[in-house]
Amino acid sequence: MHFIRLDYDGHLRAYGHTEIGLFFAKGDDVLGLKTCEYPMACGPYGICSNGQCTCPPPRGQMFDFYQVSFGQRGCYRKVPLTCEGSHKQVFLRMAGISCFNLATDLMSIEENRCIEVCAKNCSCKAAFFMSGQGNYERGCLLVTELFWLHKVDEASLIDHCTVYLKVQNQSSELDSDVVIPGEKGEENFLQKAKRAGLGVAIFFAFLSLVVAWFLLWQRTHLNKEMEDDHFEEVPGMPTRFSYMDLKSITNDFSWKLGEGGFGAVFEGALQDGTKVAVKRLDGFRHMKKSFLNEVRTIGSVHHINLVVLLGFCAERSHRLLVYEYMSNGSLDGWIFSESSRPALDWPHKMDVIMDVAKGLHYLHEDCNKKIVHLDIKPQNILLDNNIRGKISDFGLSRLVDSNKGQIQTTTVKGSPGYLAPEWLNGQVTEKADVYSFGVVVLEVILGRKVVGDHWDSDMWKELEKKAKEGTLMNLSEGDSKDLKPDENVIAHVSRAIRVAAWCLQKDFQKRPSMSVVIKVLDGIMGIEDELVYDFTSHPMSTKSRCEETVLWPSILSGPR
């Protein structure tokens, strides 16, 4: 008893009944059919050989699997056939293919003529040529689609065909199994000679490429050595460390403190026991620009309210910076954190605000060249043992000539919510830092983020009223409302609120300089009367705008 079944995988299989009452689809046991001899074993244009499915060669150039993990679905032409492009069509020649049961209605023509007839017929996708050996007649069979190809073993070559697959040629380089319609086998000698010449040309081109690569590598290596030596020659530069030194003092970079847009920060300890924070710059795009900027900028500035750069490493592709260790971490952990860490009291809040103002004043007005930080935010303000603020992370900073005053830029840098409105027109001055400072002051006073909030004149007046009454201080510190706040603190907080409103003016020309801010906070100077009390985080802080621009988060959390 025998039957043929269309199985779950879409293949027709022949089954036979044995003496022990079992049905087998194994060809050797019943009908002599092997795995590759089932129709559609490897799908359209798939070639089955020893149970494995492949696509017509050259591999991946003309044909490819519909799905590599399921080769039985067949192969597809990477470049579809078109009747308009028939002048560019060639044939892939594959010998040793089983003739199967297609030897009907054969055309009695020669092999070259068989190819030519298929080439002129737009609907013809492949041509089978049967040599007349074994049980098959000699002749040509044209097919409009090809659903089955079986590579025959060497012992069965007496019953084989040669198949010519029509493909659209997109390359000037022709493989040895590619046949051009109209060319006889003898005339292919010229094509082989061309291929031989092409092979020689490719060899010499490869040799030239190797020599060019070696010269380029040698030049690049020399430039790196010169670049490293250049760092040694800069006067007043911080200490230079080797990469192995920094691996050692950070315990192979295992004591991680935080991570941001420029890389990770690790805790370390020098030989004398001094704690340091080692920042490892990641990514090629940051290595040179940000590294040189930080080393040359921070290495040349010294102020009590700026984080000290103690050293650096410039060894091959490694770029690292060694800072003084700030035991109390960043400001955001004190004003935003919901952990058990106590909140900053008002005297410390006012001290930190003044510290940041003095640091920015030094960068903007007391340096030989004006330095614009471009990323002032709580995450980049670190606190030392005495909870005094220091500005860190100069990865975005820019030097500005005093006679120019403006930075011309087409790339938005900084952090959403702290960016000044003038970033939209690409012309930025030091007043961009003043705007960011205003946001930070407001967040320090309120103890929460204000990004996205809208502030009109009524809200500013209400905030200042609560500060003067002392209710703002009581609510923030969780004290009793009956506790009488310190009059000196109330005065400082009220001035800080007005300073924040002044710094957040949309027109950068109406914002104060940092020297004026310090005088106002000290109470020796008044605030301009005609202020626009309308602060709203501009569109650059929204998600849609962030997706359209290149933003640099550079957020580093935890102590470093």
Q: For the largest sheet, list the strands in their spatial order.
A: 14-18-19-17-16-15
CATH architectural label of the largest domain = Orthogonal Bundle
**Poorly predicted runs of 5 or more residues:** 26-32, 184-190, 408-412, 477-483, 539-560
Oligomeric status: single chain
Structure description:
A 6-stranded mixed β-sheet has the order 14-18-19-17-16-15, sandwiched between helices. Strands 10-9-12-8-13 form a 5-stranded antiparallel β-sheet, with helices on one face. The model is unreliable at 26-32, 184-190, 408-412, 477-483 and 539-560 (pLDDT under 50). The chain contains 12 helices and 27 strands. It is of the alpha+beta class. Helix 6 runs antiparallel to helix 7 and helix 6 crosses helix 10 (487-503). The chain is elongated, with a radius of gyration of 39 Å. It has 4 domains: 1-33, no CATH class; 42-182, no CATH class; 239-324, Phosphorylase Kinase, domain 1 (2-Layer Sandwich); 332-548, Transferase(Phosphotransferase) domain 1 (Transferase(Phosphotransferase), domain 1). A hairpin with a 2-residue loop joins strand 18 (309-315) and strand 19. It has helices at residues 111-120, 188-233, 243-249, 284-298, 332-335, 346-366, 431-446, 457-469, 471-477, 487-503, 514-521, 543-548; strands spanning 2-6, 12-17, 23-24, 47-49, 52-54, 63-65, 75-77, 89-98, 126-131, 138-143, 149-150, 160-168, 178-179, 239-240, 256-260, 263-269, 275-281, 309-315, 318-324, 370-372, 381-383, 389-391, 398-400, 407-408, 427-428, 454-455, 535-536. The longest helix is centred in the middle third of the chain and has 46 residues, at 188-233.
